[in-house]
Amino acid sequence: MSTHEKAINNLTAADYLVIEKEHKLLNKFLNDLKEACACSNMNESQSCTKCDQEKEASCQGRLPSFLFYAIDVASTHFDHEETIMLSRPHVTDEYGYFRMHRQEHERIIQKLNLLVEECFSLEGQGNTPDIYRKFHKKLTDIFEEHDRLFDDPFIASTQHESTRKSEIVSISI
Which residues form the Hemerythrin-like domain (predicted)? Predict the structure, then answer.
């Protein structure tokens, strides 16, 4: 079990269901992105030479919509995540780690918007399967880095906080 999966399992049941549903949606999105261009699943040097012009144009045209969808999914997820964070007793808008985490969410959305711009600038250029692989890798890296650097430590800190509260309650009894 990955560190992130362990951290998510430490959430309350309701929070877990929301986050887990969104993570499944994000994973499905990443898989759909990977599958959208049949040639991108083949070896690294594969190009669209086996595809007709219509199929290649379809693959090229679908990528921006995938990226816009990623922005929508990420924005919704980040809103839910921030709501969950603020529901913790010790977390407020002024809490330093929360502010950093929120800023990271904003930075990711900016990165995703830049990827959309990059996607439009690559339209009609280069090898479509390579472009799909590149964007899949970039998106996967962005979300995995966020989980590792922000989500996991936050969940661990709230677990530490609730463990500390349990210890205080048991000492006072």
Answer: 18-146
